[in-house]
Structure to design on (204 residues):
């Protein structure tokens, strides 16, 4: 296959799809420039990036992006450039993927992406558990007639705890603590389950 594309609105304004691989350039080059480039064994003035199919390790298409993109990873990044190539439309991107399948042996696969945004909510759950435990312990001390030490570090927080514990008592404090931990725990679990996303990739 030999296909030449040109579009001045793209980052890679010129590209060729060949039986050997992809040729990308940020310049607008005529169709004959590829032959001139190959015959000169890589004229730096041409600014052409060559990615042979044998060097393509993994590709991930981004069809919903405008313009559509193809994230390309290479086997040897020291000699070949990994890049994100932009295409005119989805059909052109699909054509490139078909050539990759044909010449590189990469197969379509579904990849799960772990999103760690739920960890912030886990910290909230831990903080709620600490608050609930402190509240219950303080309520027990108050009901047992023990004097509370509300001075020193975090005295403001201790006074707030004492006020709440005094109003709720041990039972009420326990109920509030369980409700807080259960609520934050459920929210964290829900976010964790929904935070993992999938994407279609081509890899070996």
């Amino acid at each position: 296959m030999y296909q030449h594309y040109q579009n001045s609105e793209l980052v890679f304004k010129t590209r060729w799809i060949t039986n050997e691989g992809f040729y990308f350039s940020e310049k607008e080059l005529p169709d004959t420039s590829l032959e001139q480039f190959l015959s000169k064994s890589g004229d730096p003035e041409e600014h052409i990036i060559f990615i042979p199919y044998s060097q393509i390790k993994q590709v991930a298409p981004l069809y919903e992006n405008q313009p559509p993109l193809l994230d390309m990873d290479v086997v040897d990044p020291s000699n070949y450039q990994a890049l994100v190539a932009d295409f005119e439309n989805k059909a052109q991107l699909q054509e490139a993927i078909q050539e990759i399948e044909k010449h590189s042996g990469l197969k379509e696969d579904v990849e799960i992406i772990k999103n760690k945004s739920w960890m912030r909510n886990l910290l909230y759950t831990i903080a709620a558990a600490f608050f609930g435990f402190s509240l219950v312990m303080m309520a027990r001390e108050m009901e047992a007639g023990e004097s509370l030490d509300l001075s020193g570090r975090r005295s403001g927080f201790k006074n707030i705890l004492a006020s709440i514990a005094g109003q709720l008592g041990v039972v009420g404090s326990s109920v509030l603590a369980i409700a807080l931990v259960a609520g934050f725990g459920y929210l964290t679990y829900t976010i964790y389950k929904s935070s993992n996303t999938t994407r279609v990739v081509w890899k070996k």
